[in-house]
Amino acid sequence: MFKRWFQEPDTEVEIDDASHRNGAVDRTPVTVERPPDPEPSREPNGVAKFATFDEIYRNATVKPPKVTYGILKLAEMVNSPHLGGMSLEGKRGSLLMALDAANVHLEDLLQDAMIRQRALNDYEEMQHKRLKDFEAVKMRENEALQAEIDRLHAAQAERIQNNLDEIARHEDTFRAWKKRKQQESETIAEAAAYCAPSGAANNTGSLAASLARYGAEAVVGKGS
Question: Which of 9, 59, 153, 196 lies at 20 to 30 Å from 84 by C-alpha?
Answer without folding.
Answer: 9
